[in-house]
Write a structure and sequence with these properties.
single chain, alpha/beta, seven-stranded mixed β-sheet, globular
């Protein structure tokens, strides 16, 4: 295990893997195929030996990024994908079968909710629960339950699942525990600490951070023994059983499904990740200050942010993430504020659908990312018609509070 701190380890990751000419970054490898001087070596890589054959299954550049994120999450291995949704899709589709049962938090990202709908159509049984309450997760257990899925910080409501309680229970029950850590990032807390089996990160968000690249990652923490998991194909039951799950995700998700991250994008994400700690500290500080400002504003009805003392999981979040609460918040405007007029008066905040960017972003939740869900499902999730999702960036905090103040005053 690396003895250096998070920032030092991330900054020096590339050169410690070994580079040519003293380069501080791993080089770009744009090759589609990789040649061999010995046919036996070519065959050996196809049969499981480490190496590269065809870039759909990875390149030295994506491997360097995988090593970096593996170290961040204190894992044993990672597989990169073209997007975070590709990473989630590969995880669910390669490890679950028709007739299996998945327990998932009901407070999840809208696109993930849509993906679960596809799983249902393919015969996977799904139970949605309030994962902030361990008892509800436990009560959903069935004989065919294979997996539990949660997000560290829910989007957009900012609910905090009982991450440690669920992890302990999954370990006792022998269930695969998948944690989407996108909104906390491994910097606030590596999900291995919650006994996650697999950790999913959308690299497009905080890890990349600059709004210029899409990517996703699945990291195996090494805590789950795949030898007793029935859905691992016989062909992948070779070597250390703790690697079987990630091998199947890689083979099926990249080779068969083709959700491959390109080398040039991987390089961009790797460079962006070097400033993750600095950006997250600023983002968390800005978000807490903005949340307190909005909570006191007479034209704001409700602010959901884990850093506020009245948040239902405030103490849990403080304990889990070291009094840092991420950059996402949900804001419900007063009823007399017309949401579109208000948004059109903002000057600093960007009207855009993204998270974890250096720039502060805002959008009306019910009319955009949760529109297709319908009013009934939105009501179940507690999403109001005049609710905003805010992703706080690294701007000067006075500019952020001032922008909201002037737009509310004129709305």
């Amino acid at each position: 295990m690396d003895e250096n701190g998070f920032t030092t380890s991330t900054l020096h990751s590339d050169r410690r893997l070994g580079t040519q000419h003293g380069a501080i970054h791993q080089p770009l490898h744009p090759s589609t195929e990789y040649g061999f001087s010995d046919a036996r070596e070519l065959a050996a890589v196809f049969q499981g030996k480490a190496g590269f054959t065809y870039s759909r299954q990875g390149t030295p550049t994506t491997a360097a990024l995988e090593a970096k994120v593996t170290r961040m999450e204190k894992g044993v291995g990672s597989v990169s994908f073209a997007t975070g949704m590709a990473a989630l899709t590969a995880t669910f589709f390669t490890l679950l079968r028709q007739g299996d049962h998945l327990i998932t938090s009901k407070y999840i990202f809208g696109n993930t909710n849509s993906l679960l709908g596809t799983l249902r159509e393919l015969g996977v049984q799904i139970t949605l629960v309030d994962a902030t309450d361990l008892a509800q997760v436990q009560a959903a257990r069935q004989p065919n339950t294979r997996m539990v899925f949660v997000e560290t910080i829910a989007n957009p409501g900012t609910q905090i699942a009982d991450l440690q309680g669920v992890g302990q229970w999954c370990e006792e029950q022998g269930l695969v525990y998948v944690v989407d850590a996108t909104l906390s990032s491994p910097y606030l807390r590596p999900s291995r600490d919650f006994k996650a089996s697999l950790v999913v990160n959308s690299l497009s968000k905080h890890i990349g951070g600059h709004g210029n690249a899409l990517g996703g990652m699945v990291t195996d923490t090494g805590l789950f023994d795949w030898s007793d998991y029935p859905n691992i194909a016989e062909v992948y039951r070779n070597g250390n059983p703790r690697s079987w799950g990630l091998t199947q995700i890689k083979k099926k998700g990249l080779r068969d499904m083709g959700g491959t991250l390109s080398s040039d994008v991987a390089h961009r994400l790797a460079v962006g990740s070097e400033t993750l700690p600095l950006r997250m500290e600023r983002i968390c500080a800005n978000a807490l200050a903005l949340a307190r400002f909005l909570q006191a504003h007479p034209r704001v009805r409700k602010v959901q942010y884990p850093g506020l003392e009245d948040h239902p999981q405030h103490e849990r979040a403080a304990d889990l993430f070291g009094n840092r609460f991420g950059g996402l918040m949900s804001v419900v405007l007063a009823e007399d504020v017309e949401v579109f007029d208000f948004l059109n008066r903002l000057n600093v905040f960007i009207l855009a659908t993204h998270l974890g960017d250096n720039r502060s972003l805002v959008l009306p939740v019910a009319h955009t990312i949760y529109y297709e869900m319908g009013a009934e499902q939105r009501a179940i999730m507690g999403i109001a018609d005049n609710q905003l999702r805010i992703s706080v960036g690294i701007e000067d905090i006075a500019d952020l509070t001032g922008d909201f103040d002037q737009a509310l005053a004129r709305s």
